Structures are given as C-alpha cells and as structure tokens.
Amino acid sequence: MTTWGWGIIGFIAGGLGLILLSHLIRTIDLWPFSWLRRVLEAPVGLPRLDPDVPADLYYHPYPRRLHLNWLALVLGPVWYVLVGLWVHASIMAAIVGLSGGLLAPIVWLYCGFKANEDLLEFRVASRSVY
Hints:
It is a single chain. This protein is mainly α. The chain has two domains: 1-41; 45-130, no CATH class. The protein contains seven helices and no strands. The chain has helices at residues 3-27, 31-40, 55-58, 70-75, 77-83, 86-98, 104-126. Helix 5 (77-83) runs parallel beside helix 7. The mean pLDDT is 79.
C-alpha cells in the first residue's frame, strides 16, 4: 500500500477514534471520562440555564468577543469535536488538509480565539425555534 493509502486510513481511523472518545466522554462516569467532561464543560459565556426557559438565553448580553480559550488553542479542531461541534471541526480540518498544513497556524489561532463564541452560538441555536 502506498503512503497516501496509509495516510487516508490513519486519517479515517483518527476521526473515528475522536468520535468514539467524544461519545465516551459524554456517557461514561468513570474517572478519566468524568474529569474530561468537567474540563470540556467549563462555563462559556452564558451560564447553563433551564432548557424549559429559552427566553433566558436571548435576553442576556453576549460575552466579550475574541476571548482566549487555552484548551481550544492547544487542541485546535479536536476541541470542537470533543464538545460536539462536528461541522466546525470538519471545515477546519478540510482547510488544513487542502492547504497542505500551511494554514494550520491560522486555524489553531481561530480555534483559540473563537471557540467560546462558537460554542455559545451553538447552544443558543440548539434552543432556537428557527
């Protein structure tokens, strides 16, 4: 098998491994997974409110823009996969892959500075009627 073939197999295996890890973090209450869940569920922007009162999400001021999230800065698109933002992670992985890694520093900076804002928008949109 060629180097490209092994690279594609490794990329697919890594993606499936991240999906499995994300599922395990959300469902299993053993020590390493519960610790990772607590780290990844750090409060971002608005506090987690009662889902029966969606109006609470809309009438609070948004947090400061471009706030640095150190964990997302270190992990990059992997952080997005671990918190459940699959579309963002796949777009950023595609940008890095298609550029041959040249845009990786820009993608990692984007992850570090926009992670909190993206997660907050995802939480608000998941409660939206539209």
